[in-house]
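A further point concerns the way the authors explain their paired sequence and structure data. Nothing conveys this as quickly as seeing an actual entry. An entry of this sort, consisting of the sequence and the corresponding backbone structure tokens, reads as follows:
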Amino acid sequence: AMMYPGMQSLWARWSPPHERSRLVGFAFGGSQLGNALTFPLAGLLCAYGFDGGWPSVFYITGLVSLLWCCVYAFFARDSPGAMPSIKPIERQYIETSLGVYGQSVEEQLEQRKQEKPWKAIFTSGPVWGILLANACGNYGSYMLLTQMPSYMKEVLKFDITSNGAYSMIPYLVFWIFILIGGQIADVLITKNILSIEWTRKLCCALGMVIPGIFLVLTGYMDCHRKVEAVILLSLSMGFCGFQFSSFFINHGDIAPRYAGTIFGFTNTGASIPGILAPYIVGAITKNKTREEWLLAFYIAAGVQVLGAIIYAILAKGEVQPWAMEEMEEMPPEGVPLQEIPEHDDEEEETNGK
């Protein structure tokens, strides 16, 4: 709950706008890579782990999380200006693209202390577009995250060890599609093929409508079509990766200064359908039949399509008027690195000495 808003806020200060899709997608894609690796690891630990098997899953994942926190605390910095090892040309490139070049770290921190326009945030159409699209997307993704092992056991008849191995595949594909989606989105924006707004809307459609179609097709598979079912599930999860180049990072487009705050609001509301999804699926699949799972998949697909429609109507790609108060106007496409002369780098290093 703390990490996702914090990372949104961090990337709003570190990523040039025209590189944001692939940078944020690469960083947050690690979550899906972690999911992919945890499924087979958990299956093996349940079968062969220490302390009775399944408790070892919690010990191992908890230890890995603790080690990550130590590494992150040591290396991470709040902004480019606070990073001691950054090269002057790299800092200038990032800060110029964000419209804060020439400001000290203290000045940037002081600007962030301005009061947040809560009323404007809570009544903003683009903010609610993000929240509702995220909520609909979460219903499908949380359903798969929590119920996919059950589906593979009850319908496809996988045992616990192979269940973990096959459950890994959709999340690996998900991770790969997140990286691909980020690259495609940034190319569309950088080359002026589509505006930021329409790039986000296109990625939302790809990340919600297509997964819904593959999810419904998965519902028609049974234990005699295990390979086909895993392929369809993988494609459904994979195309969800385009969501990371859509509403997931749209906070930084419409209100970069309040990206973390808005993400906290939208992600909290969007988590509610994700909480309800396992209970809804459990109520529908009482007899654990393929027909019941097909109905659950139809509902999830319908929710995802609804989210894509809402986002297409409400989403925006430019900084909103209420988020531009006391802000310098930012270059919309960033600053190409080749336009920053090399001698600036050398001069700043000399002055620093």
